[in-house]
Amino acid sequence: MSHVRLICILREPEGLMALALSEKGEDAGLLRLPLHTLSENEVPGRTALLGAWESLARARGATAETFTRVLQVLLATEPGDGTPPPGLEHPWLEPPPAPHRRTAAHPRGYRGTLHQPPKRPQPEALDVRPHLLHRRTLGALLEPLKPHVTEAVRQLEEEGHSRERLERVALALASPTRADMALAYHHGLLDTRGAELPASFIRLGALLSRGPERGFSRLLALRGRLAIDTDPAVLTAAARLLLRWGPELGLPWLEVAARLGPETQMELLTGLVKPDVTPFGADRYDLQFEAFATRNASWRLDYLRGLGAGLSSDYLLSGFRLLAAHDLDVSLSMHLPSAAGPVPEECLDALFVHLLPETRGHWALPSLWSLCGELPGFAEVLTSVPWTRLIPEAAYALVTLLSTLGWDSTVERPERLRWWSAARRLLPSLLEQLSRTPASHQRRCIEMMCRLVANGESPWEVPAYLVPTSLALAGLVCRPPFSGDNRLAYVLEALVKHPDPRVRERLLAAPERSFLRFDECCAREDLATLAGKGMEWLVEHDVGLVLDAFESCPETLARTARLLGTLWRHEALPFLAEFARHPLVREDPFQLPPEQMAALLREHCVGGVESPLPRKARLALEEKRELPPGQWARALRVASTQRTRLRLQVLARRVLERLRGRMQADTKDERVRHALQMANLVHDNRRALRRLLARYFEGERNFIEHHPVSRAWFARHSRVDRESWLKGVVLRREVPGQGEVTLSLEQDALEALRLGTHVGSCLGLNGICDYSAAAVVLDINKRVLYARDSRGRVVARQLLAISDDDTLVPFKVYPESCPQTLQSVFLDYDLAFAETLGLPLADGPEEPEVENVLSSCFWHDGAWELGAPG
Question: What residues contact 94, with CB distance under 8 A and at least 6 apart?
Answer without folding.
Answer: 61, 62, 123, 144
